[in-house]
Amino acid sequence: MAEALLRAHLGARDAPAHVHSAGTLAWDGPATDAATQTMSARGIDISSHRSRPLTAALVADADLILAMTRSHVWGIHAFDPDAAARTFLVVELPRLGARIGPRRSDETVRGWAARAAAERVGALPGRGEEEVADPYGEPASVYEATATRLDAATRAIAELLVPDV
């Protein structure tokens, strides 16, 4: 859901971005029916989505990496410890971005992400309350609450990345 929401928010800002998702588990399958229905109600079609496992190449190529939980962040760091300066919890990044302000027109996404990462206090990424639990197996109401939370976070991220619209 986060991938589709971020893609939609960046698309609304005419941002030339490539948005991909990958999981830290070796799972290959479609989005759940509940996720598909939740996103369809928001006007976003994820019926063709297929999950894929995270790889070192995906981590290396990414300018910005968003994770749902701190355990996901640690899995990302296992592929590339240098990815810390561009890896965030999806709910953490808007908080840090609010401190540093939106990306400047002459600034790369990686450069802006590094500035945001420098705002962290301590070694742990994010705060416990900034983690987003996987709604898998939960009722539709939990999927909707998760989508609402992800929608707010990805909208804020898009506004920080592409502020001049």
Q: What's the CATH topology label? A: Rossmann fold
Biggest β-sheet: strands ordered side by side in the sheet: 1-2
The number of E-state strands comes to: 2
Largest sheet: 2 strands, parallel
Rounded to an integer, what's the Rg over CA atoms? Answer: 15 Å
What is the CATH architecture annotation?
3-Layer(aba) Sandwich
Total count of domains: 1
Spans of at least 5 consecutive residues whose pLDDT stays below 50 are none
Order of helices and strands: HHHEHEHHH
What is the CA-CA span between the terminal residues? Answer: 24 Å
Whole-number mean pLDDT: 93
Number of helices: 7
Shape: globular
Helical proportion, percent range:
40-55%
Structural class: mainly alpha
CATH superfamily: Response regulator
Beta-strand percentage range: under 5%
Walk me through this protein's architecture.
- The structure is a single chain.
- With 165 residues, the chain is mainly alpha-helical.
- It has one domain (2-161): Response regulator (Rossmann fold, 3-Layer(aba) Sandwich), CATH 3.40.50.
- Helix content is 45%, strand content 4%.
- The chain has 7 helices and 2 strands; from the N terminus they run αααβαβααα.
- It has helices spanning 2-12, 33-40, 56-61, 70-79, 92-100, 109-117, 140-161, and strands at 65-67, 87-89.
- Strands 1-2 form a two-stranded parallel ribbon.
- α4 links the parallel β1 (65-67) and β2.
- α1 (2-12) packs parallel to α7 (140-161), α2 crosses α7 and α5 packs parallel to α7 (140-161).
